[in-house]
């Protein structure tokens, strides 16, 4: 699908895309988790998680440390196995391994807290690598795509440098471009700004807000409430491996229902 087609299909406003998820006529969710459970030894890190994310929807996941947010992201990208339940991406169940898994992983872009760029490859090579190796794209085409994505995230002029020559904020934007180069259907972000110096946080959040506006389906673990207010259709609050509550951002931040959420918001708002 061309970007433009994707835009026009998924450009509805935040509220209408969230409403689409509740409509009986809505198309199947892009990401679907059904009764997902995961243990690490005795620790029940994901407890009966049910979650539907509609195409174009932006979901922010927040919650205390250790509540299972990263495990949830990693499970959706199959970096982590689950014990039982189902995870479907665009109606397809996650395959266990092999080529099919590689293809499906390409549908799910992921950006981590640390940028994980290849240190000895140029910025351009970091972005072309996936399209060349996994998508078998031609050299020229991959370069063109990479340059357009680097331009989009505002670092095209850094293309020939090595990652260490860039600021943290620039590296994280390259990581976003690299994930986008695989033309994912959904982007997962796990605390993408928490390792950044404060003055670099906004440049990364701005890139993400832009992506959301363009209709990208996103699941974002972040405590940046400004981002949640600006870009999220829905906030999901996790605690102890469970989704404790979920609501539109304004509703959640001004009127949290559970004591856990009230307590958590009290802590992050006051510090
Ligand atoms: N590979 C692992 N082996 C054992 N325990 C793990 C593993 N990964 C995570 N855990 C535990 O699972 C729980 C959930 O971890 P997870 O990283 O998903 O939490 P989180 O909500 O992302 O926390 P944070 O806000 O600190 O990033 C924690 O108690 C953690 O210690
Ligand atoms: Mg985490």
Structural features, described:
This protein has about 270 residues and is an alpha/beta fold. About 40% of the residues lie in helices and about 20% in strands. The protein has eleven helices and ten strands. Strands 6-7-8-3-9-10 form a six-stranded mixed sheet, with helices on both faces. A four-stranded antiparallel sheet has the order 2-1-4-5, covered by helices on one side. It starts with a helix and ends with a helix. The structure holds adenosine-5'-triphosphate and magnesium ion. It catalyses: a polar amino acid(out) + ATP + H2O = a polar amino acid(in) + ADP + phosphate + H(+).
Radius of gyration: 18 Å
The run of helices and strands is HHEEEHEEHEHHHEHEHEEHH
Question: What ligands does this structure carry?
Answer: adenosine-5'-triphosphate, magnesium ion
Name the CATH homologous superfamily of the domain at 31-117 and 186-269. Answer: P-loop containing nucleotide triphosphate hydrolases
* Percentage of β-strand residues: 15-25%
The CATH level-2 architecture of the domain at 31-117 and 186-269 is identified as: 3-Layer(aba) Sandwich
Q: How are the strands of the biggest sheet laid out side by side?
A: 6-7-8-3-9-10
Question: Strand count, sense and closure of the main sheet?
Answer: 6 strands, mixed
Number of helices: 11
Poorly predicted residue ranges: 1-25
Distance between the termini: 44 Å
The CATH class assignment of the domain at 31-117 and 186-269 is Alpha Beta
Helix share bin? 40-55%
CATH fold annotation of the domain at 31-117 and 186-269: Rossmann fold
Shape assignment: globular
Region (Disordered): 1-23
Keywords: Amino-acid transport, ATP-binding, Cell membrane, Membrane, Nucleotide-binding, Transport
Subcellular location: Cell membrane
Protein name: ABC-type polar-amino-acid transporter
